[in-house]
Amino acid sequence: MYKVSVFPEGSGVNPWFELSSYKNYKFKDPSLIKDSYDYVVVGAGFGGVSAAFRLAENNPSARIALIDALPVGFYSSGRNAGFVSIAQVAKALIGFDRFTLEDQKWLLRLNRLIVSRIEKIKEQHNLNFEWRYDGMYKGVREKRNSLALDRLEEHLTNLNLDYTRVKGDDLASLLGTDFYKDALYVKDTILNNPSETIRALASALPSSVSVFENTKVSEVTDGARPKVILSDGRQIAAGKIILTVNAFLSKFGFKAASNVAAIHSYGALTRVLTLEEQKAFAGVNPWGLTATHPSGATIRYTSDHRIFVRTDIDFASRLNVSKRLFNRSEYYLRRAFLRRFPNLKNVDFAYHYGGLISFTGNTRPLFGEVARNIYAGVTSDGTGVTRAAILGTYLADLIQNRDSEELDYIKSAYHPSYLPPEPFRSIGASAFLKYKDLYAGVEL
Q1: Is 75 within the bounds of a domain?
Q2: CATH number of domain containing 211
Q3: For 252-289, b where at least 16 C-beta lie within 10 A, e where not — what string?
Q4: Mean pLDDT of all residues in the chain?
Q5: For the ranges 47-51, 90-94, 183-187, which has the lowest average pLDDT?
Q6: pLDDT in tens, 106-149
Q7: Which residue range(s) make up the domain with 33?
Q8: How many helices (H) and strands (E) would you count in the chain?
Q9: Which residues are 39's β-sheet partners?
Q10: Which ranges of 66-100 would DSSP assign to H, the alpha helix?
Q11: Which residues fall within 8 angstroms of residue 118, CB to CB, at 6 or more apart?
C-alpha cells in the first residue's frame, strides 16, 4: 500500500483561476464515482488531462476516471506563468544542465507534437481559451549575465530555431521598460491563462472520461487489480493507475520518487492599468519574458493590460508553502516589479500566490511503472506545461502498448539521477539557490 501523508494546498489567490472564463464549469459530482474503471488517472493537470485524452483516443470504449484533490486548474498546472514554449530548451532549476543537443532536439520534436495536439482539441471542440503566439523574450540586464545569453543564442542556432537579438532602445520600445539591456526573442511560444487552458481542455474530454475535482486520494494499492482509496474511504478498482501528481508522488511513499524534489516560486498580477498608465506601453504588444539567469524574475505584460511578476525561489523542504515564506515573497515580488516599472509605483497587486515546481538532479523526468500496474510521470524543470503533457500522453501509450520512436526515446532517456537524502538535500539545494540569487543581482 502507498498512503498519502500530505495533500496539496492552495497558497494565496491564483489569478489565472479567478480570471478564467471556465472557472464555473461543472465537472461530475464526486458522489457519482463508480466502484471500478479500466483506468484511473490521479492529478488533473496538463499531464493527467493529456493522459485521459490519449487513453480514450487509443481505446474509445475504455472507462476512465480523472481525479484531482483540488479544482481543475487551481494548483500547479494553473499556477505557472502562462508560457507554452515549443522552442524552450531544458534548463536545470538546481544543479547543472544534463541535456545534450540530441536531447534538446527530441524535446523540440515532442513539444511540437504536444502543441499540435492541444491546438487540434481546441479547434475541434471550439474551445475559447487564450492561446496567443506572442513569443518569448529571454532577457538580461547585468552584463555579467550576457554570456549565458550568448550561449543560448548559439544553442538556438544549432537547433535551427528562429530568433531575433534585440538590444537597448529597440528592446525598451518593445517592452515598455528600459530595465533590460539585451534579449533574444523567440516567436514559437504561446502565452495563455494556464488555468483557463487546462479547465477548457478537461471540459472537452470524451464522455468515456469522468472528471472529478475536489476529490482527495489518500492511498493507492498495487497488484493485479490496483485500487485508489479516497479520503472518505471509498475504494475504486482499476486495470491500471496513472499518477500525474508531480512532486507529491513522494508523499505516496514510492521508492522511485526519492530522486524527485521541488522548489517554491511566487507570482503576482496587478490590477488592470488605467488608460493613463497604459500610455507607457503605447504601441507595445502583449509580451512575456523569462530571465536568462535561472533565479531571475519572469515578467508578462498581458493582453488585458496587467503586469505579471514571478520571482523568489526557495527549496520546498515541505511541499506546501508556509505562511512565513508566502508573506516574505510579497517584498521580493514588489521589488522586482518596481525595478522594472518605477513609474508604476501606485499600481497594486490584485493577486499574490505561491506555486510548486518539480525538479530532478539531472534534468531528466521520472517516467514509467513505479509499482505493479501503477505508473507515474514527474516533470524535471521549468518547462512544465509541454513536459507534463508529454509525460501524460506517452504514459497512456506505454500502458496500452502503443509503440513509437517517441516512446522509445522517453523510456531510454527519462530516468532521474540520485539525490541525497535529507537533511543533506535541503542544505545543498538551499545553499545552491542562495548562491544563484547572489549572482543574479538585480535580475531578481
Answers
A1: yes
A2: 3.50.50.60
A3: bbbebbebbbbbbbbbbbbeebeeebeeebeebebbbb
A4: 93
A5: 90-94
A6: 999 999 999 999 999 999 999 999 999 999 999 999 888 888 89
A7: 2-80+195-259+362-426
A8: 10, 19
A9: 64, 240
A10: none
A11: 84, 197, 201, 389
In this structure, is residue 328 part of a structural domain?
A: no
Describe the crossing of helices 194-203 and 101-124 by its angle, rounded to 10 degrees: 60
pLDDT for 93 equals 53
For residue 410, which amino acid is it? I
Q: Which of 281, 299, 282 is nearest to 290 (CA)?
A: 299
Torsion of CA 319, 385, 99, 262, to 10 degrees: 0
Identify the pLDDT of residue 362.
Answer: 86
Specify the number of domains making up the chain: 1
Residue 303 lies in a domain: no
Is residue 387 in a domain? yes
pLDDT in tens, 39-74: 999 999 999 999 999 999 999 999 999 999 999 999
C-alpha cell at 190: 504561446
> pTM score, two decimals?
0.95
Contacts of residue 371, defined as CB under 8 A and 6 or more positions apart, other chains included, come to 2, 220, 222, 226, 254
- Indicate the residue type of 429: A
CB 292 within 8 A of CB 139: yes
Q: Which single residue is written with the C-alpha cell 543537443?
A: 101
